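Q: I'm building a small set of examples for a reading group on sequence design. Run inverse folding on the following structure and report the sequence directly after it, with nothing in between.
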């Protein structure tokens, strides 16, 4: 297995609080690796350091064999470290298909003053339609974003990220705010990405985590207390202890 993203002794301190406490972990190419932990465990702080929104106090982040610890967020995206909910938000008055085309064109490095000119760009539309064709959103391609449901927007944000052809996708709570049917559809969409893109998934929804993750790391008070597969994590007394009061979450 090849490690694509790893941290070495990562530490993030906020005043007196150590939110990331000597975290060393490895994300293997092709896997879906979930990061779980109780509220306040430091999951978002870790993700923010990986995508470059926060600088670590100590330690190193390696991506595709290179040290990216101090690289700006956009430079990480350009190297293939993608994430959802990034700065580029959806264009509410444009259709799903137009939003996708903008994302595809942005990856191709072309001008973002766009849609009229893009009528001439067959390659942009071809790739857009390929991406949409493999998604449940394909049937909503001509709907404007403002008319999409919350779950459909989340799916579109994911697809927009994929248009950047990331090597690794950092997903921060993709199930948040979704109803049961929408969550199930998102799980299916993410299952379809297995083997195509490496995913680090931060998620509170344990059904989704256990349905998707090849590996799971458990973060508690800023430290990774265990990494293993779903069975190992579910069977761990230490992990159950960490979720005390929420044990049902781990069923
Ligand atoms: N900018 C900040 N300044 C000070 N403290 C912070 C900052 N960001 C996060 N923290 C603290 O760091 C700790 C970890 O927070 P973080 O949001 O990373 O946890 P989390 O695991 O993502 O929580 P949740 O599951 O509730 O989203 C918390 O105690 C939080 O209050």
């Amino acid at each position: 297995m090849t490690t694509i993203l790893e941290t070495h002794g990562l530490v993030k301190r906020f005043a007196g609080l150590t939110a990331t406490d000597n975290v060393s972990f490895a994300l293997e190419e092709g896997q879906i690796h979930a990061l779980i932990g109780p509220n306040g465990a430091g999951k978002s702080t870790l993700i923010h350091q990986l995508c470059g929104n926060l600088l670590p106090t100590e330690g190193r982040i390696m991506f595709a064999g290179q040290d990216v610890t101090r690289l700006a967020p956009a430079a990480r995206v350009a190297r293939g470290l993608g994430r959802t909910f990034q700065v580029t938000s959806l264009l509410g008055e444009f259709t799903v298909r137009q939003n996708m085309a903008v994302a595809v064109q942005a990856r191709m490095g072309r001008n973002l003053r766009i849609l009229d000119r893009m009528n001439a760009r067959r390659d942009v539309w071809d790739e857009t339609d390929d991406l949409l064709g493999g998604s449940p959103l394909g049937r909503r391609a001509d709907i404007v974003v403002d008319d999409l449901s919350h779950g459909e927007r989340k799916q579109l944000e994911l697809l927009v990220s994929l248009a950047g052809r990331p090597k690794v996708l950092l997903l921060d709570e993709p199930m948040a705010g979704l109803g049961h049917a929408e969550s199930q559809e998102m799980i299916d969409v993410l299952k379809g990405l297995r083997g195509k893109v490496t995913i680090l998934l931060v998620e509170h929804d344990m059904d989704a985590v256990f349905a998707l993750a090849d590996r799971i790391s458990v973060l508690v008070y800023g430290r990774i207390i265990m990494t293993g597969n779903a069975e190992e994590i579910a069977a761990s007394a230490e992990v159950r202890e960490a979720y005390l009061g929420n044990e049902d979450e781990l069923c």
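The CA atoms of residues 84 and 194 lie 16 Å apart.
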